[in-house]
Amino acid sequence: MTDIVTVEKLVKRYKGGFEALKGVDLAIREGEILALLGPNGAGKTTLISAICGITMPSSGSVRVGGKDVVKEYRDTRSMIGLVPQEVNLELFETVWNQVRFSRGLFDKAPDDAFLEEMLKGLSLWDKKDSKTIELSGGMKRRVLIAKALSHNPRILFLDEPTAGVDVELRRGMWETVAELKRQGVTIILTTHYIEEAEAIADRIGIISAGKILLVEEKDSLMARLSQKELRIELAEPLDRVPEALADTGLTLAEDGRRLVYSYDTAGGGGTGITALLSRLKEGGVRMTDISTHQSSLEEIFVDLVEHDGADRQETAQ
To answer: Where is the ABC transporter domain (predicted)?
Structure first.
């Protein structure tokens, strides 16, 4: 799979010295869905703006389809569709007119057949003659996507595409994104909804304080970083882990009613659960229930960002 976007040593520094991006390196593969996660102020929108040619980098380079976004702006911008966070639509204009106008902005010849097919794919065809003010929040988001796709771009940026959209419409948006991928569109989305990235992304990128912490295949990230826990509910509370079990790595919950055992299945060396349960029984520890828990992408994300923040504080000191 070839890279359609390459970002190298990208820095964005504002007046006053604040660095929104600090030497970002990123390669986006053609045809993938990349979810970019990060807390508020992490640099997600600034990075998108730099790739789209909206924000001028302070240093570094960005290439789209092999072309420089600064020196060959018109060529690179024509390859990109951008759906911003803000719903910025003409309230008293029809869906059809707005989409046709957006296509014209990119010097594309009129192609009503293409626009009709696109609107049908976004479930907007029956709303083509409706004015924006008459549409629901979810439909307005779809119109933003239609405008971004009107010139048939190869890359689509979705900046918080489901913000303020209810769960049902959010899932409908996921289906729309999946269909666009099947059509060959490369999709980069920023999101605050961890389940959104977990549901539809091929790769996950995590950005914090203007730096990319990692970019990795979603499945391998989950397998590499997620931990599993065996949670053992106790018949009688304990005040401490029995000395005979001190070498097992067991931890005791604050209320003393649960023992927790962390393990990893990736190494192929076994979990040690069978031996652990035997030792618990031999030690007279009575159990009422046993359950397993695997850390979610959200827990992984929070852990990485908190770890990065702690590292920055330590460096500052």
So the answer is: 5-234
Kindly tell me the sign of the dihedral angle through the C-alpha atoms of 120, 148, 176, 185: positive
Q: Is residue 317 part of a domain?
A: no
pLDDT digits (tens, 9 = 90+) for 155-214: 999 988 776 666 666 777 788 888 889 989 999 998 777 777 888 899 999 888 899 988
Residues 237, 188: one domain? no
Taking alpha carbons only, the member of 123, 150, 128 closest to residue 138 is 123
Is-contact 62 137, C-beta < 8 A?
no
Q: Give CA–CA dist 57/194, Å, rounded.
A: 29
By the 8 A CB rule, do 260 and 229 touch? yes
Q: Are residues 241 and 215 in the same domain?
A: no
Measured distance CA(125)–CA(118) in Å, rounded? 8
pLDDT in tens, 253-263: 989 999 999 87
Please, are residues 242 and 283 in contact by the beta-carbon 8 Å criterion?
yes
| Residue 314 domain flag | no
Same domain, 218 and 236: no
> Measured between alpha carbons, how far is 30 from 116 in angstroms, rounded to an integer?
26
